[in-house]
Amino acid sequence: MQLHLQTWPAIEHYLRDNRTVIMPIGSTEQHGPNGLLGTDAITAEAVARGVGEATGTLVAPVIAVGMAQHHLAFPGSMALRPGTLIAVIRDCVESLALHGFERFFFINGHGGNVASTTAAFSEIYAAASFGGGAGTRLRCTLRNWYETPGVAALSRELYGEQEGSHATPSEVALTWYLHPDRAMPMNLDPPVAPRGSFTDAADLRRNFPDGRIGSNPGLATIEHGKRIYDAAVHDLSRELRRWTCPSS
């Protein structure tokens, strides 16, 4: 059940029994030579829709541009400054809260979003605290689909140390499962990209010239992507049910 495909009376009806909404958030940034620019948004949105279908929970439109300044030396990458992303998240949550939504389950596809997203949650709670009123019923939580137990186990089984940390075979495989017409298998040189740290966009491009960090997305397959998708939806559906139970 996607929010943007509903009418306002349908949302009003939904809110009679359910105050939870799933919030997918990703990024639009380079993912190496054979990974799609929209990988982080595509995967977060797809997993969120799967969780929504499994749990009967409404899914908001994906926030498709994230905190990705470090990828801006690669053409096509887009980014929001940390403060901008914090404001976007806060405005999205507070808009829906006006209508009665109380629980916001963020499904994230991009590690660079984590700090800004959790900071946005702190801003939301701080507004209630400094307001001096009775507080807020709003609850926000963040889950990274690529770190669920099932996905982590599959990544170890399928890729081992070649999973890496950016343009990973697991995320590339998932996008290929979702968009098989965009699959681009290739042999990479070197097969496993170097590891290391970076600061700004120029530093990342200098240290990791093809955009990969410690990964070998040449190992990705469409079949792997199906297994990874199923694991992510299974794990996060269980997490959502646990989080929304009356005692939480």
CATH topology: Rossmann fold
- Overall geometric form: globular
Order of helices and strands: HEHEHEHEHHHH
Mean pLDDT across all amino acids: 96
The amount of helix comes to 40-55%
- What is the count of helical runs? 8
The CATH class turns out to be Alpha Beta
State the distance separating the first and last CA atoms. 24 Å
CATH superfamily, called what?
Answer: Creatininase
Number of domains: 1
Task: Give a short account of the largest sheet.
Answer: 4 strands, parallel
- How would you write the strand order of the largest sheet? 2-1-3-4
Number of strands: 4
| Computed CA radius of gyration, to the nearest angstrom | 18 Å
Report the portion of residues in β strands: 5-15%
List low-pLDDT spans.
Answer: none
Report on the architecture of this protein.
The chain is globular and about 60 Å long. Helix content is 44%, strand content 8%. It has a single domain, classed as Creatininase (Rossmann fold), CATH 3.40.50.10310. A four-stranded parallel beta sheet has the order 2-1-3-4, sandwiched between helices. The chain is an alpha/beta fold. The model has no long low-confidence stretch (mean pLDDT 96).
Quick summary of this structure?
By secondary structure, the protein is of the alpha/beta class.
List the helices and strands and how they pair.
Elements: H1 8-14, E1 20-25, H2 39-55, E2 58-59, H3 82-98, E3 103-108, H4 114-131, E4 139-144, H5 149-159, H6 169-178, H7 201-207, H8 222-243
Parallel strand pairs: 1-2, 1-3, 3-4
